[in-house]
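User: Can you predict the 3D structure for this chain?
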Amino acid sequence: MRKYIRHPSDIPIEFNINDIGGEQQDSLNNISEGGLSFHSKVKLDIGSVIQIRIPVVDPPFETTGRVTWCTQIDGRYEIGAEIIGRDQAYRTRMVEQICHIEHYKNEVCKNEGRCMSGKEAAFEWIQKYAHLFPQTGS
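Assistant: Here is the predicted structure, written as structure tokens:
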């Protein structure tokens, strides 16, 4: 049984693999307060420590993660990582922002017929609503 609820997302993600080096960019698959899964062009070893950055939330979310699983699907990889850095309040705020962005993206598509990528929706949501989002004392 899962400890955290997973929220689907296609928000862009950046990650550095400490063992390999070099920044990789791809997209989130889903996210929770305890971890996330994302797509990757490269295979990551279980136990690898990675630096994770989600640049489209405000402020950008940066943390450390540990790879817990890696599955090859259609020539690419789906990676699961637990978040091992940052405090609970910061992680919760980041997940809440991503959920708001995904909801906004879906509502705009449904109501306006304007379907956006996660990145496009994030930039638009941040411009319109981030100033209303409660700030934390980070």
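The chain has one domain: 7-131. The mean pLDDT is 81.
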